[in-house]
Each structure stands twice: as structure tokens, then as C-alpha cells.
Amino acid sequence: LSVSRVGSAAQMRAMKQVSGSMKLELAQHREVAAFAQFGSDLDASTQQLLNRGDRLNELLKQDQFVPMAPEEMVCLLYAGVRGFLDKTPVASLKRFESEYLKYMHTMHSSLLATIKKEGKLTDQTDAEIKSALTAFMAQFTP
Question: 5, 13, 82, 95: which one is catalytic?
């Protein structure tokens, strides 16, 4: 998610498609998190917003000098934005990332290649990511 002068024009379309709602969700998360410090009674939707924001922030963290391919980031952000990680503890997200990417490279390398080549998510690639993620989450134990 580029912050350069070029901004989102430098991003592949697939990244923009996946991260479009994420900017709003993270802004809402920051606002609600600041408010939540002063009150402990939070309704379910507010708690959900805080939980998802925590997970999205964790997904955005990368180790120094370990760049991630855009198609890998698309798949990871898809999992966070679409709610697949809502029940996964934040402490387990690093392990999720490594195991999920290993799974994608092993079982769905053609899907990663398609995302890289096309640079966008079609209805078919969206469905394939969802299917791969659903299969992976069925066997992943946080």
C-alpha cells in the first residue's frame, strides 16, 4: 500500500481491489480504539471492528529486508479483509502467513502466477482464492 507521491497508481490492480475497503476499516479501527480506551462496554459490532483492525494491522507488518511478492500480499490481505482471520488469534498470524503462503506455493502456484500475470482479480481468480483459503482454513489450527 504505497505512500509515495505516485500513490496507488503504482499498485497492481489486484492489490487495489483487495485493499479498497481496508483503508476505511483501519481508519475506523484507529478512531474506535482511541474511544475504547475510555469505556469498557463495547457492543458486538464495535468489538468486531477492533478485532479485524488488529488483524489487518498485524498482516501489514513485514520483517525488515524480507520483501513479499505482490501476489502473495494480495492473497494475505484477501484473508484479512474478507473476514477469514476474524477468529484467528493475533499471536498466530505470523504462523498463518508462513503456512498459508507455503500452501499457496505448493497447492495453488498457478493461481499465484495468474494474479501476477493478470495483475487484477477476475471473478474466477476471486473464487479460486476464496476456495483455496476455505480449504486451508479447514486444516489450519491457530
Answer: 5
Q: Which of 110, 81, 88 is nearest to 23 (CA)?
A: 81
Per the annotation, the verdict on 82 as an active-site residue is no
Which parts of the chain register pLDDT below 70? 1-10, 39-40
**Number of H helices and number of E strands within the chain?**
6, 0
4: helix, coil or strand?
Answer: coil
Buried b (16+ CB within 10 A) or exposed e, 18-46: bbeebeebbeebeebeeebeeeeeeeeee
Grid cell at residue 98: 508462513
- Residue whose grid cell is 475497503: 21
Question: Which pTM was predicted?
Answer: 0.85
- Provide Rg for the chain, Cα atoms: 16
* pLDDT for res 33: 85
